[in-house]
Design a protein that fits this description.
heterodimer; A: alpha/beta; Helicase, Ruva Protein, domain 3; Dna Topoisomerase Vi A Subunit, Chain: A, domain 2; 2 domains; four-stranded parallel sheet; two-stranded antiparallel sheet; B: alpha/beta; Rossmann fold; Glutathione S-transferase Yfyf (Class Pi), Chain A, domain 2; globular
Chain lengths: 204, 374
């Protein structure tokens, strides 16, 4: 027998599909929705519908966008000779916040993880290669690809896989540095990060 | 570091408070009254884990919801800290001086080494137990090594998943090799670190093993790489890379990873013979003790102090002659906790030691019990 009437149980089930939402949170969210006035629910539903209708993958960089190509790929002021490869669209946002990177992006939508059944074919890798030819890039030659996947086992494997494909094509391929967070104190850094920072030290 | 006092509430059947001596502490009592539970409580404070169960909820006394183990640890002459592990349902709350701490920081407060019959798997069990013995000793000296191990294991799991899928999907050898490369590269990096750390650690242990505890019993150990005889182990990373390339087909057919430090072993010889095959159980116990004593020495040479040494049911594992030598050896070194059910043990070794009598889980100082009896 169901704990709740069918429409409520169904809503709870749907919420449980969301990442980070367990049974208790799903129940709370469902009852929150039930107590909302109709027009708020309508606007929530239309926001969901709209996002699915209007948001598409950028044909060039795979970013999620409502204009195709996306604002970064279409921009005239960005440096088209550098591409930064990230795992997820929100990683792009993190790089963008630096305000110092002016190049283009390429979003893979994930990282290699055989455990979760994600191989190279499941990632959006293949459309980066045509971008390296000047004729597909406003006659600008791509000089460097920066691989900014996460410093996890999976992110490293993805970086490694990409580098093996890119290097033979003659494009400079770099990996973002790992180590100390800026503005923090040495004492707050865990041993592993400190270890990485020590081995990636530079001469002054 | 010295454990000064230890209290337990609802942790298994324990109650009461132990005041510990800096040297030898004898936990005495009949079987089934909870002597080992007190050792488990100390082990919990040191590791946040139990040596009896993987599910800590089982250690909460039946019918209760909250178990607390609390100790005062003297770090140096002027610094004592209270450390506490509270188990409530599936959560573990760790506090130092009544302030919540992360596992990582909590683990630095108290260190302990355990000798019991389960640990005998190191000398008589599968290679896995010996690898764990080595890795545990290395982590106690270089905490960052735990990340290398965890990265290695994660990479290994990913690689095995890939091999299994390739096997199932009948992927070509070339395509498999190509997909394996990024995982193998990380595998090699971490494997080389693990190999180097283990080889060095074994060298370190061997240096201390030379100081013999028991006469005429010469124990020696050697790290046995699964790549031995395949090439130059001094260039481990290169050798592993080469072997991985040669064995792609074999790994693909097997559907799991065949080469790496997860296949290595530690060879333990007793008077020049393989202990696992030829050693008597008495010899195996002696050898385990000698290994653990060298673990203590290796720890000391790094930290300049000894961890606590916990010996469960010591008289069931060793004869009195060996115990006598052992306790004499430890006397000016470790804070030691032993459990025994024999009165003769207490009479023979009890002089100068703190004697804790355990009855139905309750700890009582022997002096406060009018007639010390077991």
């Amino acid at each position: 027998m169901l704990e709740y009437s069918e429409p409520v149980a169904k809503l709870i089930d749907e919420f449980k599909r969301l990442p980070g939402i367990g049974h208790k949170s799903a129940q709370r969210l469902a009852f929150f929705i039930l107590r909302l006035p109709n027009e708020k629910v309508e606007s929530f539903v239309s926001a969901l519908r709209e996002v699915k209708e209007k948001i598409v993958f950028c044909d060039v960089c795979n970013n999620l966008t409502d204009v195709n190509p996306c604002m970064y790929c279409a921009s005239q002021s960005r440096d088209r000779s550098i591409i930064c490869v990230v795992e997820e669209p929100y990683n792009l946002v993190a790089v963008e916040k630096t305000r110092s990177y002016k190049g283009l992006y390429h979003i893979l939508h994930g990282s290699l993880s055989p455990i979760r059944g994600i191989g190279p074919d499941e990632l959006m890798i293949s459309n980066i290669f045509p971008r390296l030819s000047p004729e597909n890039n406003d006659d600008v030659e791509v000089k460097e690809v920066i691989i900014a996947t996460n410093p996890t086992t999976e992110g490293e494997a993805t970086a490694n896989y990409l580098a093996r494909l890119l290097k033979p094509l003659g494009v400079k391929t770099t990996r973002i540095a790992m180590g100390m967070p800026v503005g923090s104190d040495l004492e707050f850094v865990d041993e592993v990060t400190m270890d990485k920072a020590m081995s990636n030290r530079r001469e002054m | 570091m010295i454990l000064e006092t230890l209290e337990a509430t609802n942790f298994r059947n324990l109650s009461g408070k132990i005041t510990c001596a800096a040297g030898l502490n004898i936990i005495a009592g009949d079987n089934g009254h909870g002597k080992t539970n007190w050792l488990e409580a100390i082990y919990l404070l040191a590791t946040t884990k139990s040596f009896k169960t993987a599910r800590l909820t089982e250690a909460v006394n039946f019918g209760e919801t909250l178990a607390i183990v609390r100790g005062i640890v003297r770090q140096s002459a002027g610094i004592s800290r209270s450390v506490q592990v509270a188990i409530e349902g599936n959560t573990k709350i760790l506090t130092v001086n009544d302030k919540r701490e992360t596992v990582q920081r909590f683990l630095g407060q108290l260190h302990a080494l355990l000798f019991n019959s389960d640990e005998l798997s190191i000398v008589r069990g599968s290679p896995d137990a010996r690898r764990k013995f080595l890795d545990g000793g290395i982590v106690a000296i270089f905490p960052a090594f735990i990340q290398t191990l965890s990265d290695f294991n994660r990479t290994l799991r990913q690689k095995n998943a890939l091999l299994q899928k390739a096997h199932k999907d009948e992927l070509s050898l070339e395509e498999t090799a190509k997909r394996l490369e990024p995982w193998n590269e990380q595998l090699i990096q971490n494997a080389a670190k693990i190999h180097k750390a283990r080889v060095r650690y074994v060298e370190r242990l061997n240096e201390d093993l030379e100081k013999q505890l028991f006469e005429k019993e010469v124990v020696s150990i050697r790290y046995l790489s699964s790549l031995e005889g395949k090439g130059d182990l001094n260039n481990y990373a290169e050798l592993l890379e080469e072997r991985l390339k040669i064995r792609v087909q074999a790994e693909l057919s097997a559907g799991y990873s065949l080469i790496g430090p997860h296949r290595d072993d530690l060879e333990i010889s007793f008077d020049g013979r393989d202990l696992r095959k030829f050693g008597s159980s008495g010899q195996q116990r002696s050898a385990l003790l000698i290994l653990q004593l060298s673990t203590l020495s290796a720890y000391f040479s790094q930290h300049n102090e000894y961890p606590l040494f916990l010996l469960d049911d010591i008289d069931a594992e060793l004869d009195y002659k060996r115990i006598g030598r052992l306790l004499e050896f430890l006397s000016d070194k470790t804070q030691t906790f032993v459990t025994t059910s024999k009165e003769s043990f207490v009479q023979r070794f009890g002089a100068g030691a703190e004697i804790i009598n355990v009855k139905n889980g309750e700890a009582l100082r022997a002096e406060t019990v009018s007639n010390f009896e077991i």
